[in-house]
From TrEMBL:
Gene3D superfamilies: Tetracycline Repressor, domain 2 (1.10.357.10)
InterPro entries per record: Homeodomain-like_sf, TetR_C_Firmicutes
Domain Transcriptional regulator TetR C-terminal Firmicutes type: 106-176
Signal peptide: none
Domain of life: Bacteria
Name this protein carries in UniProt: Transcription regulator (Probable)
Matching Pfam families: TetR_C_8
SUPFAM superfamilies in the cross-refs: Homeodomain-like
Source taxonomy: Bacteria, Bacillati, Bacillota, Bacilli, Lactobacillales
UniProt source species: Liquorilactobacillus satsumensis DSM 16230 = JCM 12392
Length: 179
Protein backbone atom coordinates (compact mmCIF):
# COMPACT_ATOMS: atom_id res chain seq x y z
CA UNK A 1 0.00 0.00 0.00
CA UNK A 2 1.37 3.42 -0.94
CA UNK A 3 1.85 6.13 1.70
CA UNK A 4 -1.05 8.09 0.18
CA UNK A 5 -3.33 5.04 0.34
CA UNK A 6 -2.37 4.52 3.99
CA UNK A 7 -3.06 8.18 4.73
CA UNK A 8 -6.46 8.00 2.97
CA UNK A 9 -7.30 4.77 4.80
CA UNK A 10 -6.53 6.37 8.19
CA UNK A 11 -8.56 9.45 7.30
CA UNK A 12 -11.49 7.23 6.36
CA UNK A 13 -11.15 5.26 9.60
CA UNK A 14 -11.10 8.36 11.80
CA UNK A 15 -14.01 9.91 9.88
CA UNK A 16 -16.09 6.73 10.24
CA UNK A 17 -15.24 6.61 13.95
CA UNK A 18 -16.36 10.23 14.28
CA UNK A 19 -19.67 9.47 12.53
CA UNK A 20 -20.16 6.47 14.81
CA UNK A 21 -19.54 8.60 17.90
CA UNK A 22 -21.84 11.36 16.63
CA UNK A 23 -24.66 8.82 16.60
CA UNK A 24 -24.06 8.30 20.32
CA UNK A 25 -23.21 11.75 21.68
CA UNK A 26 -22.89 15.45 21.02
CA UNK A 27 -20.01 16.72 18.90
CA UNK A 28 -18.57 18.68 21.84
CA UNK A 29 -18.62 15.58 24.08
CA UNK A 30 -16.33 13.53 21.82
CA UNK A 31 -12.88 12.99 23.29
CA UNK A 32 -9.79 12.52 21.13
CA UNK A 33 -8.80 9.37 23.01
CA UNK A 34 -12.12 7.60 22.36
CA UNK A 35 -12.09 8.76 18.74
CA UNK A 36 -8.58 7.46 18.04
CA UNK A 37 -9.27 4.20 19.86
CA UNK A 38 -12.43 3.60 17.85
CA UNK A 39 -10.57 4.43 14.62
CA UNK A 40 -7.57 2.27 15.59
CA UNK A 41 -5.17 5.16 14.97
CA UNK A 42 -2.76 6.83 17.36
CA UNK A 43 -3.36 10.11 19.14
CA UNK A 44 -0.12 11.23 17.50
CA UNK A 45 -1.71 10.62 14.09
CA UNK A 46 -4.63 12.84 15.11
CA UNK A 47 -2.47 15.68 16.42
CA UNK A 48 -0.12 15.58 13.41
CA UNK A 49 -2.95 15.74 10.89
CA UNK A 50 -5.82 17.70 12.44
CA UNK A 51 -6.29 20.80 14.52
CA UNK A 52 -9.95 20.02 15.28
CA UNK A 53 -12.66 17.42 14.84
CA UNK A 54 -14.22 19.68 12.20
CA UNK A 55 -11.04 19.40 10.15
CA UNK A 56 -11.54 15.62 9.98
CA UNK A 57 -14.91 16.25 8.34
CA UNK A 58 -13.53 18.82 5.91
CA UNK A 59 -10.58 16.65 4.85
CA UNK A 60 -12.71 13.52 4.49
CA UNK A 61 -15.43 15.29 2.50
CA UNK A 62 -12.78 16.67 0.14
CA UNK A 63 -11.18 13.21 -0.20
CA UNK A 64 -14.60 11.75 -0.90
CA UNK A 65 -15.35 14.25 -3.68
CA UNK A 66 -11.93 13.93 -5.32
CA UNK A 67 -11.99 10.12 -5.12
CA UNK A 68 -15.46 10.08 -6.65
CA UNK A 69 -14.46 12.42 -9.49
CA UNK A 70 -11.38 10.31 -10.28
CA UNK A 71 -13.59 7.23 -10.71
CA UNK A 72 -15.75 8.93 -13.33
CA UNK A 73 -15.16 8.20 -17.01
CA UNK A 74 -12.45 10.55 -18.21
CA UNK A 75 -13.92 13.82 -19.36
CA UNK A 76 -11.91 16.89 -20.05
CA UNK A 77 -14.66 19.11 -18.65
CA UNK A 78 -18.01 18.83 -16.86
CA UNK A 79 -21.18 20.74 -17.59
CA UNK A 80 -22.81 22.15 -14.48
CA UNK A 81 -25.69 19.70 -14.92
CA UNK A 82 -23.36 16.68 -15.08
CA UNK A 83 -21.31 17.91 -12.15
CA UNK A 84 -24.45 18.38 -10.03
CA UNK A 85 -25.79 14.98 -11.04
CA UNK A 86 -22.54 13.43 -9.80
CA UNK A 87 -22.63 15.50 -6.60
CA UNK A 88 -26.14 14.22 -5.82
CA UNK A 89 -25.04 10.64 -6.58
CA UNK A 90 -22.20 11.07 -4.09
CA UNK A 91 -24.53 12.64 -1.49
CA UNK A 92 -26.89 9.69 -1.88
CA UNK A 93 -24.08 7.14 -1.56
CA UNK A 94 -22.91 8.78 1.67
CA UNK A 95 -26.38 9.70 2.96
CA UNK A 96 -25.95 8.06 6.38
CA UNK A 97 -22.82 10.09 7.14
CA UNK A 98 -24.31 13.23 5.56
CA UNK A 99 -27.50 13.01 7.64
CA UNK A 100 -25.47 12.32 10.79
CA UNK A 101 -23.33 15.41 10.17
CA UNK A 102 -26.42 17.50 9.48
CA UNK A 103 -28.07 16.28 12.69
CA UNK A 104 -24.89 17.32 14.53
CA UNK A 105 -25.08 20.81 12.99
CA UNK A 106 -22.01 20.37 10.80
CA UNK A 107 -23.46 21.66 7.52
CA UNK A 108 -20.74 24.30 7.27
CA UNK A 109 -18.03 21.65 6.97
CA UNK A 110 -19.93 20.05 4.09
CA UNK A 111 -20.35 23.46 2.45
CA UNK A 112 -16.63 24.28 2.86
CA UNK A 113 -15.67 20.96 1.28
CA UNK A 114 -18.05 21.48 -1.62
CA UNK A 115 -16.67 24.98 -2.17
CA UNK A 116 -13.08 23.72 -2.14
CA UNK A 117 -13.88 21.07 -4.76
CA UNK A 118 -15.88 23.55 -6.85
CA UNK A 119 -13.02 26.08 -6.76
CA UNK A 120 -10.55 23.37 -7.77
CA UNK A 121 -12.69 22.46 -10.79
CA UNK A 122 -13.08 26.13 -11.76
CA UNK A 123 -9.38 26.94 -11.39
CA UNK A 124 -8.43 23.94 -13.49
CA UNK A 125 -11.03 24.83 -16.12
CA UNK A 126 -12.87 21.54 -15.63
CA UNK A 127 -16.34 23.09 -15.61
CA UNK A 128 -17.85 24.19 -18.91
CA UNK A 129 -19.05 27.78 -18.55
CA UNK A 130 -21.56 28.55 -21.28
CA UNK A 131 -21.69 32.19 -20.30
CA UNK A 132 -18.27 33.48 -19.37
CA UNK A 133 -19.78 35.48 -16.53
CA UNK A 134 -17.55 36.97 -13.89
CA UNK A 135 -19.93 35.39 -11.39
CA UNK A 136 -18.06 32.09 -11.51
CA UNK A 137 -14.94 33.76 -10.11
CA UNK A 138 -16.75 36.02 -7.63
CA UNK A 139 -16.13 34.93 -4.02
CA UNK A 140 -19.72 35.66 -3.00
CA UNK A 141 -21.05 33.67 -5.96
CA UNK A 142 -18.91 30.72 -4.91
CA UNK A 143 -20.27 30.94 -1.35
CA UNK A 144 -23.80 31.28 -2.69
CA UNK A 145 -23.54 28.32 -5.04
CA UNK A 146 -21.95 26.06 -2.42
CA UNK A 147 -24.56 26.94 0.21
CA UNK A 148 -27.46 26.61 -2.21
CA UNK A 149 -26.41 23.25 -3.59
CA UNK A 150 -25.52 21.70 -0.23
CA UNK A 151 -28.77 22.98 1.32
CA UNK A 152 -30.70 21.58 -1.61
CA UNK A 153 -28.99 18.19 -1.16
CA UNK A 154 -29.81 18.29 2.58
CA UNK A 155 -33.48 18.89 1.80
CA UNK A 156 -33.40 16.13 -0.80
CA UNK A 157 -31.80 13.64 1.63
CA UNK A 158 -34.27 14.56 4.41
CA UNK A 159 -37.11 13.83 2.01
CA UNK A 160 -35.65 10.39 1.29
CA UNK A 161 -34.09 11.35 -2.06
CA UNK A 162 -37.33 10.82 -4.02
CA UNK A 163 -35.97 12.30 -7.27
CA UNK A 164 -33.02 10.95 -9.23
CA UNK A 165 -29.60 12.64 -9.06
CA UNK A 166 -30.00 13.40 -12.77
CA UNK A 167 -33.26 15.24 -12.10
CA UNK A 168 -31.62 17.21 -9.27
CA UNK A 169 -28.78 18.24 -11.58
CA UNK A 170 -31.33 19.48 -14.12
CA UNK A 171 -33.25 21.29 -11.39
CA UNK A 172 -30.17 23.18 -10.20
CA UNK A 173 -29.31 24.27 -13.73
CA UNK A 174 -32.92 25.38 -14.20
CA UNK A 175 -32.78 27.40 -10.96
CA UNK A 176 -29.47 29.00 -11.87
CA UNK A 177 -30.07 29.31 -15.62
CA UNK A 178 -26.35 28.84 -16.23
CA UNK A 179 -26.14 25.83 -18.49
Amino acid sequence: MSPQETKDQKLTAIFNALISLLKEKEFTAIKITELTQRAHVSRTYYYHNFSSLAEIIEKYELLSVTTYLRKLPHQSRFTMETLMEHYFQLAFQSRDAQLTLIAAGKEQEIIKSFMTAYLYLLKNDLIVKKNQSSLTTDTYWQSFIAGAIVNMSISWLHRGAPESPQYMGQKIVHFLKID
